[in-house]
Design brief:
five-stranded antiparallel beta sheet, Helix Hairpins, 672 residues, OB fold (Dihydrolipoamide Acetyltransferase, E2P), globular, alpha+beta, single chain
């Protein structure tokens, strides 16, 4: 090639060839060339672009590998709101929806589509080029994650025609990618991702787009939001828009059909349900939408959801597997929790080999025996639990399990007692020197919602205890670099990082300290209320039960547990050791950094996508809001995540507004 014109044309042609073959591979699953040939073509393009930076293009397929690290995400106001859907949990509720539609149009046709379990995004194109990709957020304002979305190979950086439009899709992590990521994390000793949905959400909010590129994300586009699909006309049907968007280069929803009758709708729901376990991606239901776009306009929108669509939600997925053993783990407060050891089984997006059995009474009531074939489900598709045993598969070899009489950690006798709710089945080790409790108390002390000692995980705590370097949480403050560095798999730098994190935690504040002490039933919300009321650890230790009961979020039982905690000499000794180490024990200043949520009360429920409930609580309180543990008519908002339970039900019953994590973030940022 002799001149710039030739090389520019060659690079543009090469980009189009790479785009074509990438689409054949990722979107159509019908490659025309080998992986080797594609990789060689891609490498040639990278080399030429590096040699000719003046010919750089934001639509080049090489941009999918990720770029610069961002400092944060800018807010994006959606031109076309991304609304959520009303849920239907039964065919009767579904029939009520279709009946309302048929009252307006007796011949209405419905599009029946799988509900992908991922993170909803908008994709905006100008003259056929991707310019903005944003998360749903609260439906009106989301976060600009364009750089991360560019790394998803099935999102076209340039459409096949120069149209200006906005599409909506669901970014998800395929099951194969999820399993690969968790295997890699396990090999590196990192915590495993809980499920593909949370993994996708976390990946899309990475500030480093190279990390997002490594996560193997994918997308299905499921709605035309607005703009132009054709140069000379407007579409009339939703099904038409999906076919047209596929022509433009989008990967659109599979397994969709059109239906007129409820019988046809239900038949397709059940067909998708039967395929659920074999799909390469997770779904949590089926969406039923009015196909006619003009009928959608007639039906209109509700306050937060459209009146022309509904999401039928599947009941929790269940699988059967073998119960290999039951082990009793000693928790931080000494309570023994039976845990089922299972033959690994894939369910609701992840492989499960352990599941909670709650307590001995549950095991007895459900007649669960070691060796049984058992039914497993994930509560809210998050927490694995044993529903029951398949008794007809017993062959006589099954063994009735009994709770041990002595603690599996320290060997001391166990006490059978009622739990804090007055229910039986709670077995507790009351030995204050129990090694298992000691380790878990230190883990709790160091966790993010408490003193937030970064780098101090369970394995390092176990090593410190085994080496005789710590006996309680206060001993962390007397560690030295040389002693820590001498531990296996630790060096000077790692040891110094730990010491720095420990020293930094001294100023965590009274609220975090109270929570870190691990007083039974005193969570982060109650700890904050106690810190605000008493102002110092000494005033709290001197408090009376009458004073404690009078505090919101501190009831009769919790008050007694607080009094009992400070009456124990070893606990007062721990506090004095912490004081001597320089840990701040007074409310030196309010944790509030703004008044943006002043006068508002929030209740948190379920698993949030990108932060713990303790972190969300801190964010709310820092903005002047209050966090409560129970829903009432005085509750301003309920912040709901995955597996939201009775608190969400009560909020709906009382008419309390329900928001998600993104909406909470936006509420805080909009008022600042």
């Amino acid at each position: 090639m002799d001149n710039k014109t030739d090389i520019k044309q060659y690079i543009e042609d090469l980009r189009r060839r790479v785009e074509y073959h990438a689409r054949r591979y990722y979107v159509l699953d019908d490659p025309e060339i080998s992986d080797f040939e594609y990789d060689a073509m891609f490498s040639e393009l990278q080399k030429l672009e590096a040699e000719h930076p003046e010919l750089d293009s934001p639509t080049s397929p090489t941009k999918r590998v990720g770029g610069a690290v961002l400092e944060g995400f800018e807010k994006v106001t959606h031109v076309y709101p991304l609304r959520s859907l009303t849920d239907a949990f039964s065919y009767d509720e579904l029939a009520a929806f279709t009946s309302r539609v048929r009252e307006v149009d007796a011949d209405a046709v419905f599009s029946v589509e799988p509900k992908i379990d991922g993170l909803s995004v908008s994709l905006s194109y100008v003259d056929g080029v991707l310019v903005t990709g944003a998360t749903r957020g609260n439906g009106v304002v989301g976060e600009d994650v364009t750089e991360n979305l560019r790394t998803v190979p099935t999102i076209p950086l340039r459409l096949t025609e120069p149209l200006t439009l906005t599409a909506r899709g669901e970014v998800y992590m395929p099951r194969e990618s999820f399993e690969r990521q968790n295997k890699e994390r396990e090999a590196l000793g990192k915590p495993l991702m809980a499920n593909p949905r949370n993994a996708a959400a976390g990946s899309l909010r990475q500030l480093d787009s190279k990390v997002a590129a490594s996560r193997g994300l994918d997308i299905f586009v499921f709605n035309f939001q607005g703009g132009s699909l054709y140069a000379d006309k407007a579409p009339e049907l939703h099904s038409e828009t999906l076919s047209r968007m596929e022509e433009l280069g989008f990967k659109v929803l599979p397994l969709r059909t059109l239906a007129r009758t409820d019988e046809e709708i239900i038949a397709h729901i059940e067909k998708i349900g039967e395929m659920r376990a074999s799909l390469s991606f997770d779904i949590d239901g089926v969406v039923i939408k009015v196909d006619s776009l003009s009928l959608r306009e007639t039906l209109g929108e509700g306050t937060t959801t459209p009146k022309w669509a509904v999401a039928y939600k599947f009941p929790p997925e269940r699988q059967t597997t073998k119960l290999l053993d039951i082990v009793a783990a000693v928790g931080r407060t000494g309570v023994l929790t039976p845990t089922a050891i299972l033959a690994p089984i894939r369910i609701a997006g992840s492989t499960v080999s352990r599941a909670t059995l709650h307590n001995i009474d549950i095991i007895r009531e459900r007649d669960i025996r070691v060796g049984d074939t058992v039914i497993i489900q994930k509560a809210g598709d998050i927490i694995p639990e044993v529903v029951g045993a398949v008794t007809e598969k017993r062959d006589g070899s099954e063994v009735v399990w009994r709770m041990p009489e002595t603690c599996p950690s320290c060997g001391e006798p166990l006490v059978d007692e009622d739990d804090e709710n007055g229910e039986s089945g709670t077995v507790r080790c009351i030995n204050s020197q129990c090694p298992a409790q000691r380790a878990r108390n230190i883990e709790h002390f160091a966790e993010r919602g408490a003193m937030d000692i970064d780098t101090l995980g369970p394995s390092l705590i176990a090593s410190l205890i085994d080496a005789g370097l710590i006996g309680d949480a206060a001993d962390l403050y007397s560690l030295d670099v040389d002693s820590v560095a001498s531990l296996e798999r630790m060096g000077k730098k790692s040891a110094q990082n730990l010491i720095d994190a420990v020293n930094a935690s001294k100023s965590a504040g009274l609220s975090r300290l109270i929570y870190a002490l691990g007083i039974r039933q005193v969570g982060s919300v109650a700890a904050y209320a106690l810190a605000e009321r008493f102002g110092s650890i000494d005033a709290l230790m001197a408090s009376t039960k009458e004073e404690l009961v009078d505090i919101p979020d501190v009831g009769e039982i919790t008050s007694s547990l607080i009094i009992d905690y400070f009456a124990e000499p070893k606990n007062r000794e721990l506090i004095e050791k912490l004081r001597a180490a320089g840990v701040v024990m007074e409310q030196t200043q309010s944790a509030r950094v703004s008044d943006t949520l002043d006068g508002l009360t929030f209740v948190l429920t379920g698993t949030l996508p990108t932060m713990t409930r303790d972190e969300a609580s801190e964010m709310i309180k820092a903005a002047g809001g209050k966090v409560s543990t129970s829903v009432s008519k005085k509750t301003s908002y309920v912040v709901a995540g995955d597996a939201a339970g009775s608190k969400l039900d009560r909020a709906n019953a009382l008419g309390v507004p329900v928001i998600d994590e993104d909406a909470l973030r936006e509420m805080i940022s909009q008022k600042q």
